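The methods section describes the discrete structure representation at length, but only in general terms. What matters is that the chain and its backbone geometry are given together, residue for residue. Nothing conveys this as quickly as seeing an actual entry. For illustration, here is how one protein appears when written out as sequence plus structure tokens:
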Amino acid sequence: MKLLEKIRGFLREEEPETVPQPQAPEKLKKTCKKCGKTFTVDPAWGYVPTFCKDCRQQLVKEKEMKQRAGALREIKRKCKACGKFFTFPSDTARYPSYCPDCRKRHQAAMKEKYSRKK
């Protein structure tokens, strides 16, 4: 009987091994340093923030208000699109994130994309 079982074992098709699916890393719970609110952090981000989204936005607004206070001066920023530095006056209503060239290029692309004339 053992010989017959060995022969059957050789003739059977081997079942493919199932590859274990990698599990997504568990999200971490973190508390905000400013307000104490608990928020979740995804380890895929590569960093762990210390402030919640609301407090971070508030800090950015406060920083901008401090920059606006005082005498009129030029503010230097790095363009998000091309990486070049550009300057603008501190009395503008909204601080730009893109240099004038990239803004013009973006506006032209939007006009072309959403133009009523075809």
User: Anything to note?
Assistant: The chain has three helices and four strands.
